DNA sequence: TGACAAACGGAGTCGCGGCTCCGTATGCTT
DNA sequence: AAGCATACGGAGCCGCGACTCCGTTTGTCA
């Protein structure tokens, strides 16, 4: 068997890794994915080489940042599943997610542009979407969410909220909140002009993504 | 005064310009703005140099294509202003616009990512947004559209529809239609949880865009 | 039909941004 | 304190895609 792991990393390495993550969080939140690795390095007071040693790819750095910023939302979403008022639980979680997106441009861009499903092993994004779907289904059973939306619609709406974050950034911060309010109104069970087309769940979404991705 | 214009351009030049436009329309519709100028040239059976002689910039080529594909929608939008049923006129025009976006990936990307307001002299995009705002206002006066949405919201919704086109392309064509239906439901006057924040009209939007653009 | 302006083609340039390489510095262990 | 693995820095590389330049071709007009 191969000589396994890992004595504890050197102190400066650990410190620098933390600095890089913090710099990346700031820059990505403020400038989105357009922030360059060199900028992150400068902000962290570190050379580019160091950034790439800790995060061999820009994508990996981005995902590390997203993971850190998303954990508590995932916890909240999972807790909300047992809320006695499923409609409210869904709306609260949806809104809270929107606010996270509003606070971090890079996460918004990532969710808007990709929601690219083959993410990290832990798969926080998938977990979040799964929890949100669960919340939606419960709200539907309670008659507090229109019955004809499906998990794929919810994912799409989240992606559109992420898109509205970019617009809000470019024009007016208020736009995002107004959009979320409009969407939630459109999701009420009483309006409900039946939606065209067919329902898709998260698995269908994965399958379709894989097919198109494979070209 | 300077020697003014323009004897008629050479026959091959005219022919090539047309070929380039047509190739660009096909490629941009199918692959979005990711289609490269070299591809357009190849598809047109022409050298890159020729493309750049007729359209000195990729952006100018894109805008020429958009202008061609958008004219008839603008005419329809303007005609709809005099429709006796303003609610229906708004919804029909909104839907028709969404379908145009669904048919042309590049236009969708352009509307989603930029809706960058300083466009060509004719300013087709502005004209379209103006007409759509007018339609919305009339629908509101007739009590067929919630009173608290404003022109900026409508522009944002269009941009989000454009975004949903990308998702539809990547996952399932049905997603766009479902999104449009959801949004139109959210715009009905009877639901109307009041929207947060303040109203913005198109001029505000221009002003804000200019301020941010100037950094 | 000759001559010349107009147009063509496409190899090459250029800027950008992600990433690598390697000579130097530094923390840890003995 | 010496030695070595680990980590650092940042100049430079490389691929990509928009755009240019110039030698060649072609339409037009006298």
Shape of chain A, please? Answer: elongated
Look at the structure and give the mean pLDDT of chain A.
Answer: 91
Estimated helix fraction of chain A: 55-70%
Count helical runs of chain A.
10
- Rg of chain A: 19 Å
Number of strand elements of chain A: 0
State the CATH superfamily name of the largest domain in chain A: Tetracycline Repressor, domain 2
The helix/strand series of chain A, from N terminus to C terminus, equals HHHHHHHHHH
Q: What class, by secondary structure content of chain A?
A: mainly alpha
Number of domains of chain A: 2
Largest sheet of chain A: none
Distance between the termini of chain A: 39 Å
Which topology of the largest domain in chain A does CATH recognise?
Answer: Tetracycline Repressor, domain 2
The most extensive interface between chains reads: A-B, 42 and 42 residues
CATH-scheme architecture of the largest domain in chain A = Orthogonal Bundle
CATH class of the largest domain in chain A: Mainly Alpha
Oligomer description: homodimer
Q: Strand percentage of chain A, roughly?
A: under 5%
Low-confidence stretches of chain A: none
């Amino acid at each position: 068997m191969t000589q396994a792991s890992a004595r504890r990393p050197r102190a400066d390495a650990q410190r620098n890794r933390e600095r890089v993550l913090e710099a990346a969080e700031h820059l990505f939140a403020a400038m989105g994915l357009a922030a360059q690795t060199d900028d992150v390095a400068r902000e962290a007071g570190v050379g580019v080489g160091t950034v790439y040693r800790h995060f061999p790819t820009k994508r990996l750095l981005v995902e590390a940042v997203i993971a850190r910023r998303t954990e508590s939302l995932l916890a909240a979403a999972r807790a909300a599943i047992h809320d006695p008022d499923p409609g409210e639980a869904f709306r609260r979680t949806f809104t809270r997610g929107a606010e996270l997106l509003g606070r971090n441009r890079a996460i918004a861009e990532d969710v808007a542009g990709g929601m690219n499903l083959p993410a990290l092993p832990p798969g926080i994004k998938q977990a979040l979407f799964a929890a949100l779907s669960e919340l939606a289904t419960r709200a539907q059973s309670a008659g507090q969410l229109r019955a004809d939306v499906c998990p794929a619609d919810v994912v799409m709406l989240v992606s559109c909220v992420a898109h509205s974050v970019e617009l809000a950034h470019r024009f007016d911060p208020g736009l995002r909140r107004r959009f979320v309010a409009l969407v939630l109104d459109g999701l009420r069970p009483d309006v409900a002009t039946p939606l065209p087309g067919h329902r898709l769940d998260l698995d269908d979404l994965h399958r379709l993504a894989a097919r198109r991705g494979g070209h």
